[in-house]
Amino acid sequence: MRYAKRGRMRFASHRDIARALERAIRKAGVPVAYSAGFTPHPKLSYTGAAPTGVASEAEYFEMVLAESVPPARVRAGLDAALPDGLDVVEAVQAGPGGLADRLQASRWRVELPGVAPDDAESAVAAFMAADSVEVERLTKKGRRRFDVRAAVVRLESDARAAREHNATYAILRMVVRHTAPAVRPDDVVTGLRHAAGLAPPSSPMMTRLAQGPLDEGSGGIADPFATDRRGAAPGPAEGERLTPPPSGIAGPT
Questions:
Q1: Most buried pick, 16, 60, 105, 160, via CB within 10 A?
Q2: Using CA atoms, how far apart are residues 120 and 162, in angstroms rounded to an integer?
């Protein structure tokens, strides 16, 4: 499944979103399969979740069904049962191969109110010209210092931002490779401060637009579910997983 988190739901934690999805599965009557043992759990797996406070048009989870149900029916049922701001965009029957292995990079939009586009463009040029840009962040393994420059495949300032918002406003567009530890868009903003002194006066507004295989040559994000759609059957067999394509019917990709 591919779903989006929008509006206020960007402030929900991943655990809260997982709970909401499990409630929606029960409410919609989706015949999800359960694990064996004393405490059975629905067979759901999540990958590449965006940080709390970040909006996204490209969040993913996989689900094992106990019986055959058309993917479109599963999508519609879940979408209707979820709260506003959590939207199931599409569902397809998954083919062979691991989902996590295909999600190699993300495309992001970062809005910087109060930052002049010329200042953003100069900072981007300095950042991209640097051999490395180190930042420090608290991770699950404690405070770590790591290079964010190596993970950034593309970074540019959108010159249309100030005209569209009729204010001092900058928009950054970036493609960031998935690494360990993960480099987040706020890490890149911190890197811009270290590399060029860019200091936004207010919190950036960040949106993930896509996840997928990385084209190293162009820096583009490819379709991680093209193979699934080419080999899609009329309906999922018992025990098959359901997942969606990255270009959906709502929002940017």
A1: 105
A2: 11
